[in-house]
Amino acid sequence: MEPFVACNECAFPMCRPCYEYERREVNQACPQCKTRYKRIKGSPRVDGDEEEDGIDDLENEFDFGSRLG
Questions:
Q1: Residue 57 CA: distances (Å) to CA of 5, 44, 54, 63
Q2: Domain residues for 19?
Q3: What is the number of structural domains in the chain?
Q4: How far apart are CA 65 and CA 60, in angstroms?
Q5: Cβ–Cβ contacts within 10 Å for residue 34, how many?
Q6: What is the rounded CA–CA span in Å between residue 36 and residue 9?
Q7: What is the pTM of this model?
Q8: pLDDT tens, 29-50?
Q9: Would you say 32 and 7 are in contact if contact means Cβ atoms under 8 Å apart?
Q10: CB 6 within 8 A of CB 30
Q11: How far apart are CA 35 and CA 49, in angstroms?
Q12: Does a structural domain hold residue 12?
C-alpha cells in the first residue's frame, strides 16, 4: 500500500485502508495530532462529516466504479 497524507494539519502519512478504518471504526482523529480527519474525496461518509455543498460523490462513496467492466 502506498501512503498518502491522511491529516491536513500535521501531514501524518497512512495507507488509505487504514485511514478509512480509523474514520469508520476508531475515533476519526489523527493518531499523531488528534485533529479530526476530514473526508477525502472517494471515501465513504461517516457520522460527523460536514455537509459538502455542491459535491456529488456518490459514485466514489459507494465504490460503484470498481465493480464495472
A1: 20, 9, 10, 10
A2: 1-38
A3: 1
A4: 7
A5: 11
A6: 9
A7: 0.61
A8: 998 999 998 887 778 788 877 7
A9: yes
A10: yes
A11: 13
A12: yes
